[in-house]
């Protein structure tokens, strides 16, 4: 997870003290606070990610190594001074590792949180709940919890954005993923058939990963550099955009152009529209 604190040093010290006192042991033990990773391979992979991150400039405030005990255990770890180009800044680390960042203001914290190819879940810890809601609305993840760690339970939809996937598990939304929808449309016997004019068939493409205000202009400017998109219709919404055009363009061509604007993904829409 990425943490951004203004009163950074006091928070870091408090967090270090708590992690250093965690009870490590058998996950079945009632007193255990930190168990092993899921496998030996997972522990080896995490240790390699930490080593590469330190070699690339990250600083270790706590832990950073395998625990001196039998099993796939890792020390509780805190990294800081992470920057683009460092492994831990870009990769997913599955283990007891926290990152600390110091940012100048709220917008910088939001931009930092969104500077990731992944977007499963995030948390905002704050006393002003309304402000927390505004911040959460700008975080580009599938789930945001206010004053609670990212969580899952049967009645909450679970799923992410960007490279963390599409669709949702659990809750009513998850049930819908397993249901085949059926259309039955009724017309009168003397109603004329609506003919589709192939010359007016339009292709639609969906763009995902657009949740911040500055994304909209960046994406539109990037796509309009493709000649075939110059006369396209762009419909924007808080979750992304729908690009409608008269010509079919390879998705990889559009994706290459989008990379110049940021971490966005594009795919052909499931259905096309006609006039």
C-alpha Rg (nearest Å): 23 Å
H and E order: EHHEEHEHEEHEEHEHEEHE
Strand order of the largest sheet: 1-4-3-2
Largest sheet report: 4 strands, mixed
The overall number of domains is: 2
Explain what the structure shows.
The protein folds into two domains: 2-161, Aldehyde Dehydrogenase, Chain A, domain 2 (3-Layer(aba) Sandwich); 198-268, 2-Layer Sandwich (Alpha-Beta Plaits), CATH 3.30.70. A hairpin with a 2-residue loop joins β10 and β11 (240-245). The radius of gyration is 23 Å and the shape is globular. Helix content is 28%, strand content 18%. The protein is built from eight helices and twelve strands. It has a four-stranded mixed sheet. A four-stranded antiparallel sheet has the order 10-11-9-12, covered by helices on one side. It has helices at 8-20, 40-55, 87-90, 106-114, 129-138, 171-176, 213-223, 251-258; strands spanning 2-4, 59-62, 77-80, 97-101, 118-119, 121-124, 143-146, 161-162, 203-208, 233-237, 240-245, 265-268. The chain has 275 residues and is of the alpha/beta class. The relative contact order is 0.09.
Summary?
The chain has 275 residues and is α/β, with parallel strands linked by helices. The protein folds into 2 domains: 2-161, Aldehyde Dehydrogenase, Chain A, domain 2 (3-Layer(aba) Sandwich); 198-268, Alpha-Beta Plaits. Helix content is 28%, strand content 18%.
What topology does this entry show?
Blueprint: E1 2-4, H1 8-20, H2 40-55, E2 59-62, E3 77-80, H3 87-90, E4 97-101, H4 106-114, E5 118-119, E6 121-124, H5 129-138, E7 143-146, E8 161-162, H6 171-176, E9 203-208, H7 213-223, E10 233-237, E11 240-245, H8 251-258, E12 265-268
Parallel strand pairs: 1-4, 3-4, 6-7
Antiparallel strand pairs: 2-3, 5-8, 9-11, 9-12, 10-11
């Amino acid at each position: 997870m990425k943490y951004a604190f203004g009163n950074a040093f006091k928070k870091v010290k408090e967090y270090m003290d708590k992690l250093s006192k965690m009870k490590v042991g058998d996950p079945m033990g009632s007193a255990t606070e930190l168990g092993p990773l899921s496998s030996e391979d997972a522990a080896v992979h995490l240790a390699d990610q930490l080593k590469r991150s330190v070699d690339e400039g990250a600083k270790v405030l706590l832990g950073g190594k395998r625990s001196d005990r039998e099993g796939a255990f890792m020390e509780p770890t805190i990294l800081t001074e992470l920057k683009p180009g460092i492994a831990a800044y870009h990769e997913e680390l599955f283990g007891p590792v926290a990152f600390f960042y110091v940012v100048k203001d709220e917008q910088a914290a939001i931009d930092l949180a969104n500077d990731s190819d992944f977007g499963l879940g995030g948390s905002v810890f704050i006393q002003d709940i309304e402000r927390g809601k505004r911040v959460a609305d700008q975080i580009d993840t599938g789930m945001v919890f206010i004053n609670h760690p990212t969580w899952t339970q049967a009645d909450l939809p679970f799923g992410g954005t960007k490279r963390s996937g599409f669709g949702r598990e659990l809750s009513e939304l998850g049930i819908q993923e397993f249901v085949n929808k059926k259309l039955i449309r009724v017309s009168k016997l003397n109603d004329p058939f609506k003919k589709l004019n192939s010359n007016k068939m339009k292709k639609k493409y969906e763009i995902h990963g657009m949740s911040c205000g500055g994304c909209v202009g960046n994406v539109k400017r990037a796509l309009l550099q493709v000649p075939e998109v110059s006369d396209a219709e762009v419909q924007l919404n808080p979750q992304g955009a729908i690009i409608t055009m008269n010509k079919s363009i390879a998705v990889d061509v559009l994706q290459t152009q989008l990379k110049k604007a940021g971490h966005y993904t594009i795919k052909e829409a499931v259905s096309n529209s006609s006039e």
